[in-house]
Design brief:
Layout lengths: L2 E10 L2 E11 L4 E5 L6 H8 L7 E6 L2 E2 L4 H5 L2 E4 L11 H11 L5 H11 L15 H13 L5 E5 L7 H14 L4 E5 L3 H7 L2 E6 L2 E7 L6 E7 L15 E8 L2 E6 L4 H10 L4 E7 L3 H9 L1
Parallel strand pairs: 3-8, 3-9, 6-7, 7-8
Antiparallel strand pairs: 1-2, 1-4, 4-5, 9-10, 11-13, 11-14, 12-13
Helix pairs in contact: 3-4, 4-5
């Protein structure tokens, strides 16, 4: 595994922010990290990248333990923080050369040229960073995160504040990176999840509430209205493939299922003399699932 997180706990004073987070991400996967504001996303990313050290649990980057060998582990990480701190008075090429020398890279000028081409800064590299638009500043941030060719890329809300055209470019860049690297990035944009991610993790109140959501496969929801609805709706769980049942009114339930179970529902109702008034499939997208998991 490129990134392994085991039972991470972190508190600020008496407030526990992370309550035992564990997950694995293999190489070549792009994983979206979703959650409401203030539930620990940025804190966990700072733990993973070694910016925070006062936590319990373990982080391994490409098999290297962050606590035992932090310098070696960090060599394999590229990190773009949420606020993308940059030296605005430096020229783009000057700044990237400074970063390359900080990593003591061989042929730093060549690396800078490669990064400028990789992230699409060819028309802007002679400008000062402070003169760039938000989209191009994000590209500079990605370039500094990538310049040492890390195996794991941690991106904290990399597309915040970008216009639609800039979004397309950054998303494509992240998709391209994900073919070779492990990418973990947080976002609040649900369309971004569907456009970029192989897998989604959802965090709420310091815990991972679902770590294997597949974009485009959020599950099926059926709305079933029965004239003589049983008092106990759990009997429907006898049907294979049902994940959850929610009663929405006296005669109506919503059934979340892994597959299309409409035929099974009709047979089940007929065998028990239940009178179906309506049965319809309800669209469920990533936003619906997010609300369910974080309410």
């Amino acid at each position: 595994m490129s990134l392994t997180v085991t039972n991470i706990k972190k508190s600020y004073g008496n407030k526990e922010i992370l309550k035992g987070i564990s997950f694995n991400i293999p190489q070549g996967h792009i994983v979206g990290f979703l959650g409401p504001n203030g539930v620990g996303k940025s804190t966990l990313m700072k733990v993973i990248t070694g910016y925070l050290t006062d936590y319990t649990g373990e982080v391994e980057i490409c098999g290297i333990n962050m606590r035992k060998n932090p310098i070696e582990a960090k060599r394999n990480i590229g990190y773009l923080p949420e606020n993308n701190p940059l030296y605005l008075d430096m020229y783009v090429k000057e700044y990237l050369l400074f970063v390359a020398n900080t990593y003591k890279l061989q042929n730093p000028s060549q690396k800078v040229t490669e990064m400028i081409d990789c992230v699409g800064l060819g028309s802007e590299f002679q400008k000062k960073i402070g003169q760039l638009s938000k989209g191009y500043r994000q590209r500079v941030g990605l370039a500094q995160a990538l310049i040492h060719n890390p195996k794991v890329l941690i991106l904290d809300e990399p597309t915040t504040g970008l216009d639609p055209n800039q979004l397309v470019g950054i998303r494509q860049l992240i998709r391209n990176l994900g073919t070779e690297k492990t990418v973990l990035f947080s976002t609040h944009i649900m369309q971004e999840v569907n456009a970029v991610c192989d897998r989604v993790m959802v965090i709420n109140k310091g815990l991972i509430v679902n770590d294997n959501v597949q974009p485009g496969n959020e599950g099926l929801v059926f709305v079933l209205e029965i004239e003589n609805m049983p008092e106990k709706t759990d009997i429907f769980k006898e049907i294979d493939g049902i994940k959850n049942i929610t009663r929405t009114s006296t005669n109506e339930i919503e059934i979340e299922a892994k597959k299309d179970i409409r035929g099974e529902l009709f047979r089940f109702a007929t065998q028990r003399n239940l009178i179906i008034k309506t049965l319809k499939q309800k669209e469920q997208n990533m936003e619906d699932l997010f609300h369910k998991l974080t309410e």
